[in-house]
Write the structure tokens for this entry.
Amino acid sequence: MNPTGPTVPLGDVHPAGDDRPVLELRAVTAGYGAIEVLHGVDLAVPEGSVVALLGPNGAGKSTMLRVIAGQLPVTGGELRIAGRVMNGASPDGLARRGLCVIPEGRGVFPNLTVRENLWMATHTGAGLKAVEERAYLSFPQLGQRRRQLAGTLSGGEQQMLAMARALATDPAVLLLDELSMGLAPLVVGHLYEIVARVAATGVSILVVEQFAAMVLGMADWAAIMTHGRISAYGRPAEIDAVLSTAYLGA
Amino acid sequence: MTESASRSEQFKSEIAGMRLRTGRSNREAVLQVVGVVLMVAGVALALGAYQASLGVKATPGSNVDVLSSNSYLPLSVAGMALSVVGGFVFLRYSLAQFLRFWLLRQSYEQRLAIDEARAAGKPE
């Protein structure tokens, strides 16, 4: 699925021309209270493409997703969504319009059943029946466990539930945080197959991952984040080549 | 137009029409301070009115002094009302923040408890 188009040089994260970004961060700074975590992040996610964001633990990847989703305020720079500066946009407003986050740790409601968790995805106007049909089509094992508490599902099934719930909202932009965390490689492979299918329908996807191999195989672009900055951006093959240097350098 | 292209266009137009509420968390902090200021100002006003009413000089054979003293009553009541309103404003915006953290903590701890119970139930 990797395109053969022109390569954006490493470090040049704002592609021009036809690759108009649906998400764009320009010198974004953000953090938690007095502690700044993002120190001027530049990144672009072209429309309809998959961008993999890699980096070691504590680099600021999840913080960046929170900023994009409106869960953390931008303290400097510009966050552009669909070409518009969206600093200060509310997370619920963005979610209602189709910017969907699957957070690290799955974010399912453990004391609700699978069905009730899917019910949470009906806020966009879709009926529960339609949401369930869509979810069970992609993840048949969730259908068998529809009355089971989400907290009692295996890690892989919880991740499937989180994905099913996200996809039921018909997202235009999908932010995935550490999809592979704590899961067996076989399960991760299955989940990334689903992500690839979603990407093929034109949804723009930003995937945050620590483990590069699987995500680089399906991404159109990739970036490395270290110490709260994007240190490299390019085609997956280019990033793969500099990955170990970037990680060790971090 | 394909389905994905129309979804993308819909997303763009909805984002373009979205109203931004900037500085929301800052507004909460400002309103907390406003609440405290109202509380203090209300109490000060009530005490001031009481103090001023004590200074009314008694005039023998006249009830003007009583009327003058009574005129401070509404001011004092207004001060107390201001203080109560300030208290509510402060509580509203400080509790909102506290409850948000409390809710997060609740769901985090519940999740931990369920994970532990699940791990304990697994066969060795």
About this structure: The mean pLDDT of chain B is 81. The interface with chain A takes residues 2-5, 7-8, 10-12, 14-16, 18-25, 107, 110-111, 114-115, 118 of chain B (CB under 8 Å).
